[in-house]
Amino acid sequence: MCKLFMRSCLLVLVLPGLARASLTSWFEQRNHTFYLRGPWNGAVYRALPELRREFNAIDFGHAHLAETLLRSSDEAVVERARLEILAFINSKPDLPPDEAFIAPTFFRLAWAVQQTFDWAHQLHRDLYDLFAADNVQDKDEAYRRILENYLAQSQALTFQSLDHHGALWSFPESRNFIRRFPKFNAQIWSYHWLQAKVAEVQLGRSAAEQRSALGPVLAEYHGYLTTPPLQWTFMPMFRDLAPTFSQRYPEAANIVDNLHMLHDNIDDVLSSPNLFPTVEARRERIYHILAIYLHRNHQPGDMRYAQYRTPAGMGHHNHH
Question: What is the phi/psi pair of residue 35, to 5°?
């Protein structure tokens, strides 16, 4: 995989204009938010090593896709990236990759978006750790601490139920990624399927019971990677695949669904050079979309993005 990492790093040389612009007009203050300390930290690492390796590979997949689409929308190039990601997944990486190294150009283009991704991924890790931690008895109290810590940061996604099937799937660029790259899209949605199924499997089980229960889930997931589920018409939703988790922890379920929809929206932008022919246009569109999702933009009385919330009385439906 060294060649793959080197290729990603060298993309900065392929797009020198973007690199220069990033250092001037696109300068953004960079900082990293440290994870919340708690007795659950590292539980997946210790108790569910097989799952840990699967999650490490997923982080690589999103980053390498974004970097590839910035470089080219040629079908052969994108398909090669998909196969490279599959090879990385199958290598069972023991450590998470550094996404800034995998996607240096995307980091320069949209640092605030990547910061939002990173913080939401940390929420993922905290919650999977929590439910793998046999030493934490009061999971609900710990969940509240983790959620409060997550929402306190400016890059947090809203826990509002957003209108994924309607308003957020009706942009001019919507569905361009699935139309142009159906196999890659199905592969990305398979990651989302796994994350939801794991959350449901963890509830009410000890770490040892989770290890047993996760076997069939991981086998099904790898079946989707081998034969991409092209029949899926919409991304897997937490409320469909993890109904017990979603009922008990609706804020987390909504945040993860919103994260996944944001990924889809951005993939659509990056797959639409006809609509956004310059990197400046792509960046402007990506930041416009990001604002719809941020927790700080959905405070009581703030109606700027109310049209993107789930209409009253409408629920989610299983599309798989």
Answer: -70, 155
Q: Got the DSSP string for 64-132?
A: HHHHHHHH---HHHHHHHHHHHHHHHHT--SS---HHHH-HHHHHH-HHHHHHHHHHHHHHHHHHHHHH
Q: DSSP letter at 172? A: T
List phi, psi (to 5°) of 52. Answer: -55, -45
pTM, entire model: 0.88
CA distance linking residue 136 with residue 128, whole number of Å = 13
DSSP reduced 3-state for 162: strand
22 belongs to a structural domain: no
- Residue 318 located in a structural domain: no
Quote the number of domains for the chain: 1
Q: Which domain holds residue 298?
A: 2-12+33-308
Residues 6 or more apart whose Cβ sits within 8 Å of residue 70: 11, 15, 18, 105, 106, 109, 270, 279, 282
User: Tell me: the pLDDT tens digits for 58-81?
Assistant: 888 889 999 999 999 899 999 999
Assigned domain for 24 exists: no
- Domain assignment present for residue 23? The answer is no
pLDDT of 5 over the 70 cut: no
Alpha helices in the chain (DSSP H): 2-14, 16-23, 43-47, 49-71, 75-90, 99-102, 104-109, 111-132, 139-151, 176-180, 182-202, 207-226, 238-241, 243-248, 250-270, 279-293
Q: From CA 135, how far away is CA 213, in angstroms rounded?
A: 20
